[in-house]
Design brief:
InterPro entries: ParB/Sulfiredoxin_sf (IPR036086). This is ParB/Sulfiredoxin domain-containing protein. The chain is an alpha/beta fold. It folds into 3 domains: about 120 residues, Conserved hypothetical protein from pyrococcus furiosus pfu- 392566-001, ParB domain; about 170 residues, no CATH class; about 45 residues, no CATH class. About 55% of the residues lie in helices and about 10% in strands. The protein has a 5-stranded mixed sheet with strand order 1-5-3-4-2. A hairpin with a 2-residue loop joins β3 and β4. α5 runs antiparallel to α6, α6 crosses α8 and α7 packs across α8.
């Protein structure tokens, strides 16, 4: 792998349409990408830094030749700031950006660029920098990029083998790669179907990190993919679109109060349990809440056992120090309340 370091006019450099941080709803023309990056990435601060201190020459942009142009694959925010300082504009541009354009001390017209022959030569570097490195992307951008790397691996190998290859390239763990891939594939199915037309669900409202957490649970994997991700030799499985739709409805659709059927993120484990129980799943599908459907699973019994064990442990510890504790009216009332609740629990178990 090699590159040449060149001084290039800013006007000769294009923003990258394959930038993992660009949402799919953003058009891939240069003006639309410039507008999105300017509005979504606190570009005024970067413009201010360049305006005051000039462009940092030791940190070159990274570009590859594509379509007769040089496409910047690393440094799109900096290129956006540079283009704006050079006079680029877009509809709805803020007055602060306009002020920076007018009063900038430095307006670089050319910058150092490390030019590689192909995008593939740069992929590994970007992964190390933005996934496992010092400038991490958000969860969705990471997953988009991991998919790009994954697609470049040997298609004859197993899913887990390909995930292991990507993990080695970017210095991450195979299980992280697998989870990101599973979550992104589910997300892609929803995105391709315009999020199934579910009111209020779009790229901005979907919490990809929550989706990534969900796919780590065995019940969710089996529900969406037909089997949990435990077989080292398994081939890549495609998510079931109908199941993905149900999952998105339960996790991201909101009622008039802004609440989702899932509720708090800690309820994902309950949702996973529900998905592994036919009776509970049927109940959820016919309008029960996650909490109501969960009561039909074996998980509620396990929760009860765990609570009882925890209470027993705490009571034993309290008994071990009671001789050293001053007796007060408040403590007597608390102990009496515990005793009454224990009797009620015992009576309930005997009925």
């Amino acid at each position: 792998m090699g590159y040449t370091l060149q001084k290039k006019p800013i006007a000769d450099l294009d923003l990258d349409p394959k930038n993992p941080r660009l949402p799919n709803y953003v058009s891939r023309d240069q003006e639309a990408m410039l507008q999105f990056l300017a509005n979504a990435s606190s570009i005024e601060e970067l413009m201010s830094a360049i305006s005051e201190n000039d462009f940092f020459q030791a940190e070159a942009l990274i570009a590859v030749p594509e379509g007769g142009r040089l496409v910047v694959v690393e440094g799109n925010r900096r290129l956006t700031a540079l283009k704006l300082l050079s006079g680029a504009n877009f509809e709805g541009m803020s007055s602060r950006i306009h002020d920076f354009q007018q009063g900038a001390k430095h307006k670089p017209t050319e910058v150092p660029v490390a030019v590689y022959d192909t995008r593939d030569e740069v992929l590994n570097y970007l992964g190390n920098r933005h996934i496992a490195g010092v400038k991490p992307w958000g969860a969705l951008a990471k997953a988009r990029y991991i998919r790009q790397l994954f697609d470049a691996t040997d298609r004859q190998a197993s899913f887990q083998g390909r995930a292991r290859t990507v993990a080695k390239v970017i210095g991450s763990r195979r299980d992280f790669i697998s989870k990101a891939m599973r979550a992104y594939d589910m997300y892609s199915v929803a995105e391709e179907k315009d999020f199934f037309g579910i009111a209020g669900i779009d790229e901005k409202s979907v919490k990809f990190s929550l989706l990534s957490t969900a796919v780590d649970y065995e019940g969710v994997q089996a529900f969406v993919y037909g089997a949990p991700d435990t077989d080292e030799g398994s081939i890549e499985r495609a998510p079931d679109p109908d199941r993905v739709k149900e999952l998105f409805q339960w996790m991201f659709s909101q009622d008039k109060d802004g609440k989702t059927p899932l509720g708090e993120s800690r309820n994902i484990i309950k949702l996973s349990r529900i998905m592994m129980n036919e009776e509970a799943l049927k109940s959820l599908r016919t309008g029960a809440t996650v909490e109501q459907a969960y009561l039909l699973t074996t998980g509620v019994g396990e929760d009860f056992d765990a609570l009882c064990i925890q209470v027993q442990r705490e009571l034993r510890e309290a008994n071990s120090i009671v001789a050293d504790v001053e007796n007060t009216e408040t403590r007597e009332e608390l102990v009496s309340s515990i005793f009454r609740q224990a009797r009620q629990l015992e009576a309930a178990m005997r009925t």
